[in-house]
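Dear Dr. V.,

Thank you for agreeing to look over these. As mentioned in my earlier message, I'm a first-year student in the group and I'm still getting used to reading structure tokens, so any feedback on how I've presented them would be very welcome. I ran two proteins. I've put each sequence directly above its structure. The first is here:
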Amino acid sequence: MQASRGTFEQLYLCIRLGYVRHYEQQQRAELPLLMDDVAVNFDPGRMSRTFEALGLLCAAGQQVLFFTCHEELIHLLPQGTNVFRIRDFAFSLYGEP
């Protein structure tokens, strides 16, 4: 049985998140998480669960900056998530003109 690319990427994301958390605890430092389309190969269910997990990290005080060019992902975000758009060198809250 062979795992999909999305499965491997999800596993890799889990390892990276664990490493960051371990490093923060060891160094007593708070680092922001910067992610750029880390879940581009996830199916909608995995992506939704990934956002839930990132939301739990945020609720625990972790700053997460998730960059994507896939606007459809916005609909998978938990209610109340702050979403900002950068377009033509302008920064705005998603949904504002």
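The second protein is here, in the same arrangement:
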Amino acid sequence: MIRAYVYYNGILAGYLLKNRHRYVFLYDRNYAASKNSSIALNLPKAKRVFTSANLFPFFQGLLPEGANKKFYCRQLNINPKDKFSMLLGLAQNETIGPVTVRSAP
């Protein structure tokens, strides 16, 4: 299982996990209990655990497309079909908005 740490305005908000068959997003207990907002409308804090066969649309929205996707994948030596690796490689700093995704806390 691969794990990514999801931050909202620099605060640990949750964990994105991937195994061979599914993705799981899980809010951190402290973040879920806080007054901070959900990271996305379709990932409300009222429900703490989310599962999907595909990468959640919110996280896909953080990824580049077209020529930018090809450029970054070539530069970082990432398979363009590996969205999780792209997310880890690109969503650490280069996101629009308050959410970042990192491979280590």
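From my reading of the second output: Strands lie at 2-8, 11-18, 23-27, 49-52, 99-102. The chain has four helices and five strands. Does that match how you would interpret it?

Kind regards,
E.
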